[in-house]
Design brief:
mainly alpha, two-stranded antiparallel ribbon, 11 helices, 65% helix, translocase, cell membrane, transmembrane, quinone, EC 7.1.1.-
Amino acid sequence: MESTVFLVKALIILAVFGVTLLIATYSTYAERKVAAFIQDRIGPNRAGPLGLFQPLADAVKLFFKEEFVPANANKFLFILGPSLSMLTACMASAVIPFGGSILIDGQYINVQAIEVNIGILYIFGVVALGVYGIMIGGWASNNKFSLLGAIRAASQNISYELAMGMSIIALLLVTSTLSLGEMARQQGEPLFGISGMNWNIFYQPLGFLIFIICAFAETNRVPFDLPECETELIGGYHTEYSSMGMGLYLFAEYVNIFVASAVMATLYFGGYNFPFMYDMGLPHNIVTLLGTVALFGKIFFFIFFFMWVRWTLPRFRYDQLMNLGWKILIPLSIANVIVTAAIILFKQEYFQ
């Protein structure tokens, strides 16, 4: 019995890691197709049917390019920077619940690589470490444009992590837990008689708006891609990188987009829960499978949203970026915490 549970858990961990890399790989293909659609072009269509082998062709090209290390650069830190970015990006998906539970031989096994009761803190800690990869790579390049890009990335991440953290505190007041699995389970409860619809977006719409804006800034995506702004900094922190160093930085960005989309779907949009999930009388494992499909549908929508915004909105100036973070989002997030706490106290005082 225990060996079966161990084997299933090992398969879940491998599946989570594999699916994360696969989605990040084909996000590069999807991004080109979305950009082509918005700009009225065809997009990649030469490598394989419908251009589906384009990500593999890109990977082969990057792998066989010459790895160039600039003169007077710190070689160890130059290699460590992109490696650290990639490592932290892959670690974040470990605590996300990708489904309910599987029933095998009378035992329930959660569809989650690692179940910890501080899941949201784990993600924040790992994501915060990611900026060290950018900072180390930018500093080790011995190039002023790389260093300026790295400093921009660090200041941008610190500024927007404050507002993101405050938006999460309001959510913690509502859910009373730090566990992502428990948050997802709570959202499976009925709302207005519909099971699986007790989503946090109905209780924290402002918190979600702050969170998604900060997620764009944390992943360095347009309109917040100032650390790699080509009109001012050539290529920013990865100016001197080529071959797999460049590839790891680009790949880490797409892994971060996938993780941010999965976290938003889990925190605010019910995670693996979907309407009427417990009212259809389906077997437990079928409901779990449908829940996983529903979660990936939500994740793909958010990934598409990241791409849509990139090819639609212009880039902010750096002073506008800082003003938005410090003068608008942080005060709004603090007000959101105060209002949420006041409503909870009022409800406890007069309705319980």
